[in-house]
Amino acid sequence: xxKENRSHILLRYAVIIGLIFLFAGAVVYNSLDNTVLSAPKxxxxxxxxxxxxxxxxxxxxxxxxxxxxxxxxxLCFYNIRIDYRSERFLEGRYLVAVDSLADSLAKHxxxxxxxxxxxxxMKPLETEKRKRPRAYKLLGNISDTQYQLLRTFPFFNIPNxxxxxxxxxxxMRRVNPYGAMARRSIGGVGIDSITGETHGISGLERALDSLxxxxxxxxxxxxxxxxxxxxxxxxxxxxxxxxxxIDINMQDIVENSLNDVLTACDxxxxxxxxxxxxxxxxxxxxxxxKNRAGTEYIEGMNRAVLGYEPGSVVKTLSMMIALEDxxxxxxxxxxxxxxxxPYAGGRPITDSHACDAMPVREVIERSSNIGMAKIITSxxxxxxxxxxxxxxxxxxxxxxxxxxxxxxxxxxxxxxxxRGGRIALSRMCYGYSTEIPPLYTLSIYNAIANDGVxxxxxxxxxxxxxxxVDSVLPVAYMGNGRACSQQTAERMRMMLTQVVWGDHxxxxxxxNDKVRIAGKTGTCYMIEGGGYNTSKKxxxxxxxxxAEKPQYSCIVLTCHPRQNFFGAASTSGTVLKNxxxxxxxxxxxxxxxxxxxxxxxxxxxxxxxxxxxxxxxRLRESFDIPRVKHFATSDKQTDGLPSVIGYSLRExxxxxxxxxxxxxxxxxxxxxxxxxxxxxxxxYGTRVHLTLAQ
Length: 694
Prior knowledge:
7-stranded mixed β-sheet; extended; alpha+beta; Beta-lactamase; 6-stranded antiparallel β-sheet; Penicillin-binding protein 2a (Domain 2)
């Protein structure tokens, strides 16, 4: 019995010991599995529970003008809040200082008066402490300068912010220091509703978003016993600063000149582009349309890259092809034009200034639809599709890739070899039945000004990283790099110069004694309801200056002027002329400025100054003197130099130039000082220097 019991006891011990070993083995295995075999899996789960991963947005970088001035950048603003439940909040000192604090807030942030501020400051204290807000919004969207001012107010000037409960929430905002200048081309940004990231939504901001935005970083937040420790696994990489080709001074001239003409003729909208001939650098681009809420003009849709029927400005392209292809060998050859040209049984082609015949060189000068149609159809009439192929071979239909959002290539259909195709060809060659963006038209005129070299228009010049210039975008070319031969370019420049300076030129009113302009007028009826509305016109002028040695090309479109106009020259052409004259007056055409107050005339040679052309002639006739200077005056004379302190550069230039002053400046931003001081009685032409700061 004892032996049997002993056996049972030993068995039980063995079972218990076995179970203990089994359990221990399981524990050891589990520990081994958790710490070694499956460690990565459990670490990952632990990290998921304990660690929160936060995306660190990079700094969106800036757009710069060609001189480095900022056109668009990010600035940090703040939402200001008070934590009324902070353990260190000095409620007693807060109550003592609340009247003085309310007074300071009312003085520097007058969104409410002192009583209103005091009511807002005291409202959170009406409840018991545990129910008070932890993030009570006091102010929103204030600058760093305003925040630093806020920290000098009573109570907020306590060094330890925990004792004041004051907190600030940073907010990045995209700002344009020069206001609406080139705003449509630069574009805008928006905040993604899901990610909260700021990205471009229009213009260059959108087209070059990936370069501006950079690469986000990653931060991990790991809770420990007392606090939260942050560390960055991958720091964000900021985007590039992008230097554009925009010249601030030229941009200002173009915008003001376009605005003045649009206002005078009461047009719906207008667009103007100024380009450097040798490089294709777009120095200024302006898109203005009438504000529906008022009478002023504001930055509108970027129409420089949208297609429109160009009208007669496209005759220059057709004539260039005719010279290159040998259709025209002698520009003195006389073409019978007559009063109408009923080509291919279509509606007769007519001229607004008809004559029986004219030499080829006058087809552009007189803007003859008949002459241009006869020249082109003489070669391509039997094969209209070959004209399309010729344009394609030229590179005229290739994308420009300027970076401007919404850019479109020309719409020129490959016409069939039939009667309809021949009729279409006869219209296409003088600017109808096509849609050509103004920038493409300008590129052809620029090539002619550039001895036939066909450069691409460009708006982006350099990419600049934190380490300096990263990439310089080279001058690029359309097609094979040439639009035409040098000889053809010379002939075309002669024809385009005669448009302004010839006896029959459609642009004669653009003549002046400062800058010789060459170019072509263009008028096109607008399509409405499936047909042409002859009461609505789109007027264009495209050209270059100075004609004898072109430096800049320019195109201007004016849509539906309602008053004070006589044609394309008096609207769009006048914009180009005024741009050229202003650039000349500021010494931007490799010339000296018209007049400096410190200039000294030659000894013994008197210099007289007159305010109008008739006065100049009267002085010459009456006094027999050779030196007579002309200067522009404002419509309203002023007794003294106006103050422009606090003005933007554009506003300051406009006001001072109207007062008869010549302006120089340094810095960017707003005017902080002017020399001579306001109130000085100037002679016209007095030089005023402006100091600007952000």
